[in-house]
Amino acid sequence: MRNCLALFLVTSLLLTLLTVSHAYAMRADSSAYQEPTYDFLAKYLMSTKKSCIRRGGSCDHRPSDCCFSSSCRCNLWGTNCRCQRMGLFQKWGK
């Protein structure tokens, strides 16, 4: 009786292990073996990326158009606008 019970338990354990291991077996063309794609991350980063115009570049006189410690300065007629270093009094005002 004990031998039959032990044989039954070993057989059922082996069958259970075989079915479970078969259920989790992956094919070679599965996505787990492929390189991950980060397209979604690149799209997110590009949507939240804030660009600025560096010194010497032409600007449109929009707020935060020029990079840090620069301001958009235009000539007397409001044309030829360029990002230039902030003046002494502009730094104090911010």
Folded structure, characterized:
With 94 residues, the chain is mainly alpha-helical. It is 40% helix and 9% strand. The protein has 3 helices and 2 strands; from the N terminus they run ααββα. The protein has helices at 2-23, 39-48, 88-93, and strands at 70-73, 82-85. It has a two-stranded antiparallel sheet. The longest helix has 22 residues, at 2-23. The chain is rod-shaped.
Share of residues in helices: 40-55%
Number of H/I helices: 3
**Distance linking N and C termini:** 91 Å
Radius of gyration: 34 Å
The gross shape turns out to be: rod-shaped
Task: Order the strands across the largest sheet as they lie in space.
Answer: 1-2
Counted beta strands: 2
Can you write the helix and strand succession as a string? HHEEH
Proportion of beta-strand residues: 5-15%
Topology:
Blueprint: H1 2-23, H2 39-48, E1 70-73, E2 82-85, H3 88-93
Antiparallel strand pairs: 1-2
Give me some keywords for this one.
94 residues; mainly alpha; two-stranded antiparallel ribbon; 9% strand; rod-shaped
What is the structure about, briefly put?
The protein has 94 residues and is mainly alpha-helical. The chain is built from three helices and two strands; from the N terminus they run ααββα.
